[in-house]
Amino acid sequence: xxxxxxxxxxxxxxxxxxxxxxxxxxxxxxxxxxxxxxxxxxxxxxxxxxxxxxxxxxxxxxxxxxxxxxxxxxxxxxxxxxxxxxxxxxxxxxxxxxxxxxxxxxxxxxxxxxxxxxxxxxxxxxxxxxxxxxxxxxxxxxxxxxxxxxxxxxxxxxxxxxxxxxxxxxxxxxxxxxxxxxxxxxxxxxxxxxxxxxxxxxxxxxxxxxxxxxxxxxxxxxxxxxxxxxxxxxxxxxxxxxxxxxxxxxxxxxxxxxxxxxxxxxxxxxxxxxxxxxxxxxxxxxxxxxxxxxxxxxxxxxxxxxxxxxxxxxxxxxxxxxxxxxxxxxxxxxxxxxxxxxxxxxxxxxxxxxxxxxxxxxxxxxxxxxxxxxxxxx
Length: 378
Hints:
- The chain has helices at about 20-30, 60-70, 85-90, 120-145, 160-170, 215-225, 245-250, 270-275, 290-300, 330-340, 345-360, 365-375; strands at about 1-5, 35-40, 50, 55-60, 75-80, 95-100, 155, 180, 200-205, 235-240, 260-265, 280, 305, 325.
- By secondary structure, the chain is an alpha/beta fold.
- The protein has 2 domains: about 1-185 and about 365-375, Rossmann fold (3-Layer(aba) Sandwich); about 195-360, Glycogen Phosphorylase B (Rossmann fold), CATH 3.40.50.
- β10, α7 and β11 form a beta-alpha-beta unit.
- The chain is elongated and about 70 Å long.
């Protein structure tokens, strides 16, 4: 029994963080005895390579069709599937069984994150062009894939909210065969470090500054409102991230003595160290199917303050494992941080609860066990 995982990008020695969460899955599958190879679907074809024990092939549509014609796989495993990627399979006389992971943009309608395109006419024109060139074709492709009876396709969604709020309304149907399985939050990468009461004064945010859905503007507004609190000077804020919005968003708070703006991408193996030094993770959001960075902070023992958006509440239980404000509600987020600062016992309880609970929901062994059940299911 052998399996072929097909995706849009994959780690290599030059890009070690490209879809690293998929690589961790492949490594876990191999540890459990599965024979798994990887195809990166690309027009920039290059020679095969071995990365961290995984055989990676780079193929376009014709090469993938040829490879599948002369090589037999028990199942094909797709991440970030699109109609071009699937075309090679469509041309096969006998089609293998298929598992499709749906993560986000490849299954959502174009206007889900409409606020990201309002900064300029150029951005809006570009997405409207893509609406006709990509989104409509992708939606029709997924609808056909979810309703056809000639092949065995199983779908995996990272959260129930992602399925019911984003994907189903876009595609217009719900597939018969699907599972809800979250992305992994690995306790080895994000180990729990017990917090002391003083940790609650150290607040951190690690977010991209590439689009408005990451809601870094809300982080800034929260800090500005906290400035009126008597304890403000006891707080420290470390904001990490990079992107075209970084300078304009952080400008209003850069002069605060207790705010440090780190304009940088943080490698994943350094995040744990940053988690250790903080107690509260300030992670507002306007769009999340799961909120993996929030979950990683929870695993490390940080108390996460975020928003009840999309799939976030499936992983953060309000007032038990974290605190969730309503969408764009700065005042609520300030109130919740105020509670944590004034009540160290609540902070310590939520910190411990968060780490335990998120591992029960998204721990490596939990997720891999469920995914293996789907992959090995006849």
